[in-house]
Each structure stands twice: as C-alpha cells, then as structure tokens.
Specification:
about 250 residues; 2 domains; 8 helices; Arc Repressor Mutant, subunit A; Rossmann fold
C-alpha cells in the first residue's frame, strides 16, 4: 500500500450529501475511497478490486444491508463491514453483529468517531494479516523467469511487472507453494475464500483466468508496466486445468 494511503474504503450510502461528506473526509485522512449509492454497483467493484474496509448504509437499495453483507462476504469473506443506520433498535444491532458486521453506528453520528472505529478495525485486521502471512509470504518467491513479491503484490518478469490485487496474490501464492502439484478446486476455495464458500467456483475461475493472462507473456493487461529488454523471453509457466478436479501450476525446465 502506498505510504500516502491508509487503506482502500468501499463506501455505500444512499444519501448523496452524506456520501459526499464522508468521501471528502476520508480522502483528507489519506484513504482511497470508492463510493456507490447502491449495493449492486458496490458488489461489482468488490469483485474486481481489493478493499480494506466497507462502510455501508443498512437501508441501501435495492436490497438491504443484511443481504449485501452476505453477498459481499461471498466475494471477500475477510472484508470488515461497518453498518450505518438511523434505527437504534437493540435487536437490529444484535442481528447485524450475528450476521457478520464488525461495527454498527447509529445516525446521526460523529464522523470523527467513525474514523476512530475504522482505524481500530484496520489495526486489528492488519495485525491478524501480519501474523497469518508471516514467514514464506514475506519472502520473494522465484519460479521459472518470474519473481513473486507477496508483500508488495507484485509479479515481476524481465518483460513485465504486474500489480496484483490481494486475492490474486493469495491465489498465486497457493500455486507457487505447490508448483507441479495438483490443487483441488475445493482446496482453492477453502484456502482463498474460506470454508462454507463452495459456491465460489465461478468466481475462482475468473481469478484463474486473470493469473493465466499475467503468466502469458504474449498478453499485456492494462495494469502492466513493460520493462525494457533486448530479448523477448518465452513463457515457461502455465496453469493446467484438470476438468472437474483442480489445477496445476506447471513450470517447465
């Protein structure tokens, strides 16, 4: 994450005025903010990009926050979610926490308080991440002509450097630690999305396709920087699909 940014925020708020105020405030605090007025657009954004925290109005349309929270966690089970609501009902709050929110603020609220609560959540999640991702994931991993820097979310090759999303990096890390070995579809879903998310097969296939494109030196994604080189290396890597079973990251000598 760039030093100038504290984190990526997914903001979903139906009120245009409140959404603008929150976005301006968070950007002043050096957060990167993507804001939406509906849950469907926000879900599409979450499917494409990586976010550190989600701030969501419980009454967002066309579905309520409970539905959206469930759908968001299918895409990213670990994203922290803060719900905002004008309803101060105790039972509603209990339901919100039981269904997976990390915090709940009642409108009207202090923006400074929301910011402090966000900071506390991010400190906890970053600490957990540093513990769970220590060791091998802090090292630069080498395979074929590639270097994979997990902590910097970079896939480096003499021909190109590709910036990965967090989920892409998690998936590639799983493959690199199991080069030339079969990884079942169930294992991939459980390792990347978590137990209980077996329905994520289609989303997994999308991420597999992205990694294939990054490893294919004949294709250049829009987020790729071409490194200067006098020779064009030949790709020695491919992700092989064993239909109905799983995938193998094949590295050829």
């Amino acid at each position: 994450m760039p030093i100038t940014e504290k984190g990526a925020v997914l903001l979903i708020e139906e009120s245009e005025n409140l959404r603008a105020v929150l976005k301006d405030f968070f950007e002043l605090l050096k957060y990167k903010v993507s804001d939406y007025s509906d849950g469907i657009s926000a879900l599409k954004a979450l499917s494409k990009d990586s976010f550190d925290i989600c701030i969501m109005d419980l009454n967002i349309k066309p579905h309520d926050g409970f539905f959206n929270m469930k759908e968001f966690h299918k895409v990213d089970p670990e994203i922290p979610i803060v719900l905002l609501s004008s309803n101060n009902d105790k039972e509603l709050k209990i339901r919100a926490f039981k269904e997976g929110c990390d915090d709940f603020l009642t409108k009207p609220f202090s923006i400074e308080e929301l910011s402090l609560r966000m900071d506390a959540i991010l400190r906890r999640t970053q600490y957990k991440s540093s513990i769970s991702r220590k060791g091998e994931e802090d090292k630069v991993l080498y395979f074929a002509d590639f270097q994979f820097n997990y902590s910097k979310l970079q896939l480096i090759h003499p021909l190109k450097t590709t910036k990965l999303t967090r989920k892409e990096a998690n998936l590639l890390h799983l493959f690199v630690l199991n080069i030339n070995n079969l990884i079942t579809r169930k294992t991939i879903v459980h390792e990347i999305w978590g137990p209980g998310y077996d329905q994520m097969g289609r989303s997994m296939d999308v991420y597999i396709t992205k990694l294939r494109n990054y490893l294919n030196l004949d294709q250049f994604a829009s987020n790729t920087e071409i490194n200067s080189t006098s020779e064009i290396p030949v790709s020695k890597v491919e992700i092989v699909n064993l239909h109905g079973t799983g995938f193998i990251l094949k590295v050829y000598e």
